[in-house]
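Human: I would love a firmer grasp of how sequence relates to backbone shape in proteins. Take your time, and here it is.
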Amino acid sequence: MASVVPVAYQGNLSASVPDWLNKGDNAWQMVAATLVGLQSMPGLVILYGSIVKKKWAVNSAFMALYAFAAVLLCWVCWGYKMSFGDELLPFWGKGGPALGQSFLIRQARVPESTQYYHDGSVETAVVAPFYPMASLVYYQAVFAAITLILLAGSLLGRMNIRAWMVFVPLWLTFSYTVGAFSVWGGGFLFHWGVMDYAGGYVIHVSSGIAGLTAAYWVGPRLKKDRVSFPPNNVLLALAGVGLLWMGWAGFNGGDPYAANLTSSLAVLNTNICTATSLLVWVCLDVIFFKKPSMIGAVQGIITGLVCITPGAGLVQGWAAIVMGVLSGSIPWFTMMVIHKRWTLLQKIDDTLGVFHTHAVAGIVGGISTGLFAHPDLCTLFLPVTNSRGAIYGGSGGVQVLKQIAGALFIAAWNVVMTSIICLLIRSVIPLRMTEEQLVVGDDAVHGEEAYALWGDGETYDSSKHGWNSDDTLHQKGIYPALAQV
C-alpha cells in the first residue's frame, strides 16, 4: 500500500463531481472496501459460528460481530491517523479523527527527510489516487477490522467476552497501528523497502502471532472441548469461507488505490494461488489420512489467500502457482506434523490454528515475494522503485533479507504488546470465562443458542433433543428438566 498524507483541496468544491475526482477509481475503491467488509460481515461471522462446537456458535459469531463494529468506531476517531497520518515515531503516526472529510483528497508524497538514499536515488514509490479521503478511510477500516476478527479465531471457546470487548480497542491502538504505519504509512519499514502488497505482514502475521500470544495468556479450552470440537455445520462453514475467497478480490485488488493493471493482476494471482493451495492441501490429506477433508479444504483456501497477499500485484502468474504449492504444503506440515510434536505449541490452545493459517502462511508469502517480485511490477506499485525478487539478480538477495527482517519486527512487536495488553486486562477483568460458562457455553454467556431444537407445545425429550453433542450437561444436572409449555 502507498504512503499517503492528506492534502486540502483548493479548487471548486461546489460541483458534486469536481475535476480532481476519478470516478472509476473511486467506484472501485468503494466496491473493494465493501468486498473486504463482506469478508467479515457476514463471511467470518458465518465461518466462526459454524466451524466451532454447537455450544459456542453464538459466542464465536458475536466476537467477530463486536470486533467489526468496535474497530470501525475506533478507526475513525484515532486509529486511521495513527496508521496513515503524520509521523510521531519512525514506527507510529500521530492520532486524530478522520471522520469523513470528503473535501480532502489523498496525495501520496514522500517526506523530504526520508525521500532519498545517500546516493540520491529515489527509493520510495509515489502514487496519487484521486478520490475523497472518506473512501480510503473506510477501505482501511475494514482491513483493520478483519485483522481483529482473524485474531479472535485463536481465542474461541473460552475468552471472557468482557475482556474481549476491552482487548479489541487496546490491540488496535497499540499493535495494529504500529504495523500499519511502519509498513504502509511511511514508517521505517516502508522506507527501508519491505514489500507487503496487501497485508501479509500487517494483517496476517500480526493476527497469527498475536492470536497465539493471547491464547497463551487466556489459557486453553476445557480438555473435553480440545479433544472433541466438531463443527456444528460444515456446509455453512464452506459458505463462510466462500465469501472470504470471493471477497479477497477487494482485499488484494483494491490495494493499488486505482482500477489499474496491478489491480487486475492481483485479483487473478489471488485466485490462481488459492486454487493451487486448496488442491495441494486436499492431496496431502488424501495421501497421509486417506480421505479428503472439507475442513482441510477450508484451511487450504485460507493459506492460499494469505500467502499471495504480500505479493499479489508484484509477481507473475507462474510465481502465484509456486506460492500456492508452498502455501498448501508448508502450513499443512507445521499444523499436522510440527504442532503435534512441539511441546510449546501443544500447550497453547490456538482454537482454529490461526498461527499456521495466517502467521506461517503470511511469512511464507512475504519471503516468496522477496524471491519472485518482478522488477517491472515493483516500479508500477510500491513500496519501492529499486527492488526486485532474488531470482532476478541485482539487489534481489537483499530484498529477501528485508522481508525476513520485516516479518521478525511485526512478530516481535505483537508478542510483546499483546502480552502487555493481556496482563493489563487480567489485572482488572478475568481473561477466561467462569467454569460454569465453559461447561454450558452460549446459553450461560449470552442467554441464547444457535439452534432451536424443539417447537412450541412440545415436551423436551432428551432422547431426541440435546443441548450439545452429548448428554454430559444433563448428567451433571446443569439443566433442569423442561416442563411442557
In short: The first strand starts at residue 5 and ends at 8. The domain at 20-426 is CATH 1.10.3430.10 (Ammonium transporter fold). Confidence is low (pLDDT under 50) at residues 5-14, 102-126, 464-485.
